[in-house]
Amino acid sequence: MQGNRGPQQNHGPNRSAEQKKPGGTNTNGQQPDSSEQNNSNEALTLDLQSFRKPGEKTFTQRSRLFVGNLPTGVAEEDLERLFAKYGKASEIFINKDRGFGFIRLETRIIAEIARAELDDTPFRGRPIRVRFATHGAALTVKNLPEFVSNELLEEAFAVFGQIERAVVVVDDRGRPTGKGIVEYTSKPAARKALDKCNDGSYLLTAFPRPVTVEPMDQLDDDEGLPEKLVNKNQQYHKEREQPPRFAQPGTFEYEYAMRWKALMEMEKQQYEMVDRNMKEAQEKLEAEMEAARHEHQVMLMRQDLLRRQEELRRMEELHNQEVQKRKQAELRQEEERRRREEEMRLRNEEMMKRQQEGFRANFSENREQDLRMHMGSHGMPMNRNNLAGAAGAAAAPGMASENAAIMSGPGNNSIPGGGQGVFPRGVPGPGDYGSGPNKQRRF
């Protein structure tokens, strides 16, 4: 029994180390005053710049420490002076009724150093407990595809809120395990990610494999459970009656252990069978999804071809309609041109007709005037009936040449030509015109 406990002399250095911890009692059992404690903290101030990684986020939830077993009457200023060696704290909270508090330091490494140095250190007569605080906004992401990186994981889950850290869990060979850790700055963002992602539709890559999100289990694998923290109740003493040993064959302990071993083997086989069935189901699902994806792509190509054919047909219809409209416009222009030409022709005919009628009226007036002048020059009496008869005879058909001769003859006083009369041989008699229809006028 003494050999299992180890030699007693190994506890000496631990006690001396406890005496050297800041905030503890001195060798005389007296508690140092606050001035000596502050001086020792100032003398041991860390170079914080050397504990910062390039691009590391500061004052995150991972650098938040839980401080328990605090004595009564401890204020926030006392806790701040206790951690002054490790830099400026961004958050200090103390529950005086229950004797615990929280403090947030700058980086994770500084928080680890503070935890290692101050855990189980006497503070005002009581050993305090320093642990990392539970991260209430941390999530575990499962079923991650193979090619998801830390950057892609952070980009994918940043849509739900601000992220402090996002990492893909890998094994000892650096291969992804299909799991990841996402830590948000606030709990509402983590709850939103849980609600949105657990419906089985959030995809990170092209292959349709949805991820599952669960709250991360807060495990302490650094310190574990020391003997001094074990609850020493009646069951504890019953379990510790005998030290660790091997069960001897033929005893009750050996038979009980073998039955436990058989149960664990059966559990292992069941897990292997379930894993094998799940792997086969996943491979089958992947093959079906690949075939469905190929069929979906073919369907999309067919739909795209039909859409292009429909667009081509619509373009042809539009082109035909445009050609038809152009032809109709040309026909309307041609009809309009013909209508204008017809109107122009009718207008010209009407103008010519009006000109002819005006010429005839002017000619009859000139004829009457010439006859009056001619009769007046020969002393003939002017009779309007004769003039009217002469004007009517002048207006008869076949007298156009006679009128022209009269207008241009030497006997017309109004036209220069010697002052002679209209007729060169005097006034024509009845015999000059002949008696038949074929008789020509003689001058």
UniProtKB/TrEMBL annotation:
Coiled coil segments of this chain: 264-352
Residue spans of biased composition, Low complexity class: 405-415
Gene Ontology MF terms in the entry: RNA binding
Compartments reported by the entry: Nucleus speckle
A GO cellular component annotation in the UniProt record: nuclear speck
Region (Disordered) residue spans: 1-40, 405-443
Entry-linked SMART domains: RRM
Stretches with biased composition (Polar residues): 1-13, 24-40
Source organism, top-level taxon: Eukaryota
SUPFAM superfamilies in alphabetical order: RNA-binding domain, RBD
Keyword check for Coiled coil: yes
Domain RRM: 63-135, 137-218
UniProt keyword annotations, A-Z: Coiled coil, Repeat, RNA-binding
UniProt keyword annotation of Ligase present: no
Protein name: RRM domain-containing protein
Source organism of this protein record: Takifugu bimaculatus
